[in-house]
Design goal:
Mean pLDDT: 88
Shape: globular
Structural class: mainly alpha
Number of strands: 0
Low-confidence stretches: 204-215
Number of helices: 9
Distance between the termini: 57 Å
Strand content: under 5%
Radius of gyration: 18 Å
Order of helices and strands: HHHHHHHHH
Number of domains: 1
Helix content: over 70%
Amino acid sequence: MILNWILLLLTAALAYFFGSVSTRRVASRYVFHRDLTKLGRGNVWLSNFRRLFGPLGFVKLALVEILKDLLPLGVGALLIAIRGRSDLGVAFAGFCLMMGRLWPVFNRYRGGHGCFALILTGLLLEPSVGVLAALGIIIGIWIFKSLTVGAVLGALAMAAVAVMVVESRLVLILTALICLLVLLHHIPGLRRVFRGEEEKLSRVQDISYKFDEDF
């Protein structure tokens, strides 16, 4: 019994810690050697990043994000596998990781969208869960040009598929809680979307930097 609690606490601490660590700061120090946090906010940040580093830069940043999220998920699976429940380890680590991604202690509990964490957790639990979550995110971003809508559709798709394919009741509950966290976190964003107040993503090349003396 004591061992179970120790394993759960280790998994929770590691997953929440890695979720709270800023991908931009990690990538700034070890990959790009430039402070990415100073490129702007929201879509301004995205457009400035695209201009400076191009598609390959996005791939590098995505790899940092994936590796940072995969590590605690893998460790959680290995730790709980000691008790014969690696799937439970992934689900529990995914829940704690999502807590860190959405409410990071190192950024005053103001987090991002958690899309990569959602997809990776689903893929490790059951490939179809991760694939449908990814499709929901892609559809939301492509059609509505909104990361908020993409994250919400991804969470809804993940929950719907998990109900059909996940056999363990406890793992299913944790998966549902992960999706619920995403939905709760994005309620303010959805309100802005419905009011037409959220800036939409654009695939059009941004040239506004030409009038910005900082770049």
